[in-house]
Recover the amino acids of this structure.
């Protein structure tokens, strides 16, 4: 299924968390938090400014981003969970 976010929205897919901690302890699924890191899958065209100009989205497909814990809307596309975020909900691009 093709998905094209509108305006300044971004479609991301969560990255899978590590099963072990830095010390080598295996973390059970029940104790894991949902990761706040994701990879950008699709981006919208940008946001219209008050003067009518289009400000493009500053992230690109393939970027790894960090987002807030309770932001975005979860959607399921072809059986895979994704999140639709506004550009302003993205905290940082991981390099």
């Amino acid at each position: 299924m093709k998905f094209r976010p509108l305006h300044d929205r971004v479609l991301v897919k969560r990255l899978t968390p590590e099963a072990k901690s830095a010390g080598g302890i295996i973390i059970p699924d029940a104790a894991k938090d949902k990761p706040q890191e994701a990879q950008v899958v699709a981006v919208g065209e940008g946001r219209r400014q008050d003067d009518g100009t289009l400000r493009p989205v500053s992230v690109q497909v393939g970027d790894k981003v960090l987002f807030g814990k309770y932001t975005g809307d979860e959607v399921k596309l072809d059986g895979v969970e994704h999140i639709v975020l506004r550009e302003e909900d993205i905290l940082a691009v991981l390099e």
